[in-house]
Amino acid sequence: MDIREALMTLTNSYGVSGQEYNLHEMIINIFKDYVDSTEIDSLGNIIFFKKGTNDDGFKIMLAAHMDEIGLMVTKIEDNGFLRFAEVGGIDPRTVVGQEVLVHGSKVIPGVIGTKPPHMIEKEEQEKSLKLKDMIIDTGYSRENLIKYVHIGDFISIKRESMLLSNDRMAGKSMDDRVGVAVLYDLVKRLNSIKHYPDVYMVCTVQEEVTMSGARTSAYSINPDIGIAIDVGFGYTPELKKSETLILGKGPGITLGGNIDNTLRKQLIEVAKEYNIPYQHSIEPGPTGTDGSAIQITKEGIPTLVISVPLRYMHTSVELVDLKDIRFTSILLSNFIKNTKKINYSFVEENLCY
Amino acid sequence: MLLEILTQANGVSGNEKEVRDIIFKEVKQYADEIKIDKIGNLIVHKKGIKESKNKVLFAAHMDEVGLIVTDIDELGFVKFTTVGGIDKRVLVSKTVIIGKNKVPGVIGAKPIHLQKNNERDNTIPLENLYIDIGADNKSEAEQLIEIGDYIAFNTKYEEFGDGNIKAKALDDRVGCSILIDLIKDENIEYDFYAVFTVMEEVGLVGAGPAAYSINPDISVILEGTVCYEMPELDSHLVPTKLGHGPVISLVDRHSLYDYELREIAVNTAMKNNIPYQYRKTSSGGNDAGEIQVSRSGSKTLAISLATRYIHSTSSIINKDDYYNTVLLIKHLVPILCEGEKNDRF
Fold it and tell me: Name one GO biological process term (chain B) (predicted).
């Protein structure tokens, strides 16, 4: 399976935060031929393990979250329409008119209904809709719907990913299945090289709501180095260049308090050595990625965050460039290959920083 | 269903060829006369074994609401405007298909993380929306699309729920589909005309010239019409209901429908145990507006399917409504063609 096919498969599957169990089988099937062992922990993280050549137990953990933002059923109206709340950061304006899948005891398709423009006053169009004003129409009467759907059922935005010009792809849940795709491409690369560290690749749960998956998996793995692979804001005209990454120009390497500066410099050295394009991503505080959770696990873990540029984050048309996935996994495989136990002197350097 | 093929085809107003070609192929062998007029309407005459006392015309429009490319910027992003009545709020975070080459694209939005506090209270203005086709710059985009290309929503036809259909462009491919059924029906004994019109959504453009050339006595407009059933609405504010049968129009922005024809339709429905409902709003309009005032005028009747989320990317109709509408119209053909007076008159 190439990157394109892998990302297509990953993003055309559904796993809202808390419902990642839907994805376990599919992801394990993609990875299983390339890893030494697979474990699913009690929160539902998938932990893939690949042994390195070391004899000192040196461990790197890579985390990409597999969950996606979505919705949840809060009420079933008398006429069968569903009311709902958000799971994760959803701009209500992006769900108007969307098709959805309601994950009840059966998967039920539906449409987030819209008012006919014939009945809308002109000024009304200028006000954005709130989730509380919206309904999901499943085409079922209440009587038939309650056989399958209950309050608390997860709802995902339905979208089939599309391949666009320039080997770019758009769809839902690119944040952060694109990170899982990086892990997939990386594990294939690790199979053809000798790498020193033991590598734990974790597809984490619940990043979009609590980062719980990264917290607990980092605790049980207790790695020497933690690396979160997530997405970064891709540049589009309405955004500032300084806050964004250019698509197709390589991953963003985050700089800031969440990041171990020595490791970051090492990573950049590797990028330069192998001519891999990269960009800087500045985040003074916690990054809002699994990296924030990993950094403060146990007595603290030196952490890196690498971001794949992505446009229209948290919409159902998140857009990425497949080249950036490749650049990210090439960078990581070269970094992992030669990284050894960290000398304690780095701590001093870090403290001076 | 043929409706699947019809709704998967793209025919934004002014660009109906793809839809017309499908219809032409479907009805050709059943038509006694078939022609495409100078502005793109498809006109069919079906001769019956019985001569009609009234010249009866059935009309459905081929076009759908959509978008059109207005500019391609330096970064390769595609600017557009709407074709027909679209609530711009439904465009955000959708996928579309552009032009003859069917180039896929997406309409994105600013990430929620980078928005200011009150930014979400306002609708994103149309001029701030654009389509991303993945191109890196203007010249790359220009190799795939050009200014003036029509843009259709990218929605799949699917059957779901309690016998419902979800698709784009159900307004008015559903009318086209019923009209095709009517033309294909060998049991209809009477002479009648059918027209598949262009550009209804941008101002009832095609219907006038079509009615002019046919010059009917009675016209029946087949439509997909507004349906909005929010639980908090009082029943008198609910224009139509899904699954409650064919919708008979009373009045809209363009037409007052003929009282006698309306009564005939209702009586025919009742006599044959076909459910029916009135269209309880005066908003909107359809080809009747132009047809009834063409030449010296013709009496009009509009029979529609309740269509939820009309003019959005995904609209919904009910299959029973479809079959009941076909049934009602087939019962109406002899009555309208014979010119029988309704008992009440």
Answer: proteolysis
- Decide if A316 contacts A94 (C-beta within 8 A): yes
Q: Does B317 touch chain A (CB under 8 A)?
A: no
Catalytic: A207?
yes
List pLDDT tens digits, range B134-170.
Answer: 999 999 999 999 999 999 999 999 999 999 999 999 9
Pairs of residues, one from chain A and one from chain B, whose beta carbons lie less than 8 Å apart: 200
What's the half-sphere exposure (Cβ side, CA atoms, 13 Å) at B82?
19
Q: What ipTM did this prediction achieve?
A: 0.92
On the 0-12 / 13-18 / 19+ scale of CB atoms within 10 A, B74 is exposed
What domains can you pick out in chain A, each with its CATH number?
3-68+172-352 (3.40.630.10), 70-157 (2.40.30.40)
Q: What percent of chain B has pLDDT over 90?
A: 91
Determine if residue B254 is labeled as part of a ligand binding site: no
The residue from A68, A121, A160, A207 that is catalytic is A207
CA atoms within 13 A on the CB side of B270: 6
- Token couple for B308: 């939820």
Query: At how many degrees (to 10) do helices B170-184 and B17-27 cross?
Result: 20
Report chain A residues whose CB lies below 8 A from the CB of B89: 93, 96-97, 114, 125, 128-129
- What domains lie within chain B, and their CATH numbers? 2-64+168-338 (3.40.630.10), 66-153 (2.40.30.40)
B331 assigned ligand-binding residue? no
pLDDT in tens, A191-202: 999 999 999 999
Pairing, β B150-153 against β B66-72: antiparallel
Among B75, B89, B113, which would you mutate to test the A interface (most chain A Cβ atoms within 10 Å of its Cβ)?
B89
